[in-house]
Write a structure and sequence with these properties.
- This protein is α/β, with parallel strands linked by helices.
- It is built from eleven helices and six strands.
- Helix 1 packs across helix 11.
Length: 322
């Protein structure tokens, strides 16, 4: 069972992710400062450095390059925590979409009636599961529109579905499948979707194997009753496990900010340029310049400056008094 958490718990979890990033960035800075200290020593104190040492890529540079790439790859994994998971509930009219939204939200957000087409606009609510915001969207029932207003509502549904992280396709298990049901499944076949068969409290009109023939292998099918709450925990579990990289986001340093991502991308390019300059045998001033640029880019995240730290490293490493 997936435990719900409050926005406060979400904020604490996000703070932990950012705390892990701060430590990792500091470790990355120290690696680059060590490498830069060696290069600066090559420039200023050549009599104390062997030619072999000056032509080698400091190991700190290779380690730093790997850590930058690891952090950059974490950006997509952190997205559920920073932006939430967009879950769009879709299906033909009167299958229980609004009832499901209300049940998941724990309050009445959408009007529920037996009249098909009651929902005309998008209705949204955010809930928190395991510290992750789920942005739930109830949509108008998809069918051939009967008027201009319903037509616009259905157009909004398709636009929202194009940007969904997870689509919950709702079917009425107590009524025969229709061409509308099949059409909705077919149009979402390339999406990351879960099938929720609603009204499990009523006699089933068809078997699950009927649906399995219509959907790609491995997609989850959950029996629920939005009216009585049956199967909702299973549905929450399925949502949390449906390809949002949540396992990758546990316990590690992660980028949770686009500006930080862009700064790290620039850092990575500087590190690569420094490695190439050393490999070509360029003057040490060139890779040193690239590493200073790399540290300047990290300073966009940390706000720290490097000059005194680099000098301290040089003097400590080569026992040269000021």
């Amino acid at each position: 069972m997936v435990a719900a958490k409050t926005p406060q718990a979400y904020a604490m979890g996000l703070a932990q992710l950012k705390g892990g990033l701060s430590k990792e960035i500091e470790n990355l800075r120290l690696l680059l400062i060590d490498a830069l200290a060696l290069l600066e020593a090559n420039i200023d104190f050549t009599e104390d450095i062997s030619s072999r040492e000056s032509s080698e890529i400091p190991p700190q540079i290779n380690v730093a390059a790997e850590r930058v790439q690891s952090l950059l790859s974490s950006y997509n994994a952190a997205k559920p925590y920073t932006e939430g998971v967009n879950v769009v509930i879709t299906g033909k009219p009167n299958v229980g979409k609004s009832s499901l939204l209300n049940a998941l939200a724990g309050k009445k957000k959408a009007i529920v009636t037996d009249i098909p087409g009651t929902t005309r606009d998008l209705i949204m609510e955010t809930i928190y599961l395991n510290g992750v915001p789920l942005n739930l969207v109830d949509t108008a029932g998809i069918r051939k529109p009967s008027n201009a207003i319903e037509k616009e509502g259905i157009k909004l549904v398709w636009e929202r579905l194009d940007h969904a992280d997870i689509v919950v396709i709702m079917l009425d298990g107590s009524s025969p499948l229709t061409d509308e049901d099949r059409g909705i499944i077919n149009k979402n076949k390339d999406a990351n979707f879960i099938v929720a068969i609603n009204k499990s409290d009523l006699p089933a009109c068809w078997e699950i194997k009927t649906i399995r023939k219509l959907i790609p292998q491995g997609r989850k099918i959950i029996n629920i009753s939005a009216k009585f709450g049956t199967g909702l925990e299973d549905l929450k579990d399925a949502v949390m496990q449906s390809g949002c990289n949540l396992d990758e986001a546990k316990g590690g340093a992660m980028i949770t900010n686009l500006r930080h991502k862009q700064a790290l991308e620039k850092t990575g390019k500087n590190i690569q340029a420094a490695k190439e300059a050393i490999a070509r045998g360029d003057s040490p001033e060139i890779p040193a310049f690239e590493l200073r640029e790399a540290l300047d880019n990290l300073d966009e995240i940390t706000g720290k400056k490097i000059d005194d730290e680099v000098l301290d490293k040089i003097f400590a490493s080569f026992c040269i008094g000021k």
